[in-house]
Specification:
The protein has 8 helices and 6 strands, in the order βαβααβααβααβαβ. The protein is an alpha/beta fold. A 6-stranded parallel sheet has the order 2-3-1-4-5-6, with helices on both faces. The relative contact order is 0.18.
């Protein structure tokens, strides 16, 4: 496969980390996972979103940027295939969904500076699931601080993702992958179907496929 750097994206509960981990094991690739569980603002945000949205998004932006840049200091990172469960654009999408207009403007200025200096994935895969299934997955994994997430919030975030993907389609090789009728964690055949799509010849631009 020609893609050396693959980023898996999706709304909360879409299965990003599971798929990225499985793909890294399959390809013998480096695995880059977002470090979010130690973020002290996250549980506070779910309880008081208006109060903690700005510090949360700033902290996530700084953490994601630092993690990607630190990995990129290793000259072998992108010589060997790398699979990640996020990309920096995630910060902008969640900020657009969560921040007030003046806060978002400041955030966007900082983001634009950082975005220019990070490596871009050869392929960005967005895992699409209906909001109902996202909620089911969130409940199954049972993280206490996620139990407050509403249908409306997930629907808004997913809308921001899809809008962002449409806007960037001239600059990146992007795949919106509908996994609503498969279970790639439990089914080896479903996982193989995803691999065959990821390994197919995709031009730069936006592509939509269903597994």
């Amino acid at each position: 496969m020609k893609h050396n750097y693959i980023a898996i994206e999706g709304t909360i509960g879409a299965g990003k980390t599971s798929l990225a981990t499985m793909m890294s094991e399959h390809y013998g690739a480096n695995l880059l996972l977002e470090e979010f569980e130690d973020n002290t603002f996250l549980p506070k945000f779910y309880k008081e979103p208006e109060r903690f949205a700005f510090p949360l998004e700033l902290s996530f932006l700084a953490d994601r940027f630092q993690q990607i840049k630190q990995q990129n200091l290793n000259p072998d990172l992108f010589g060997k295939r790398t699979v990640s469960d996020y990309f920096l654009t995630k910060s902008l999408i969640f900020a657009s969904a969560n921040l007030a207009q003046d806060e978002y403007k400041l955030f966007r200025d900082l983001y634009d500076i950082m975005f220019q200096t990070v490596p871009k994935p050869d392929l960005l895969v967005y895992l699409y699931l209906p909001v109902e299934k996202l909620l089911e997955n969130i409940k199954k994994r049972g993280r206490a601080y996620e139990m407050e997430i509403s249908y409306e919030y997930l629907d808004r975030v997913q809308g921001q993702y899809l809008d962002s993907l449409r806007k960037q389609n001239e600059h990146m090789r992007t795949l919106i992958l509908d996994t609503s009728e498969v279970d790639f964690v439990k089914s080896a055949n479903d996982f193989k179907s995803i691999l065959s799509i990821v390994e197919s010849e995709l031009s730069v631009g936006l592509h939509r496929m269903k597994v």
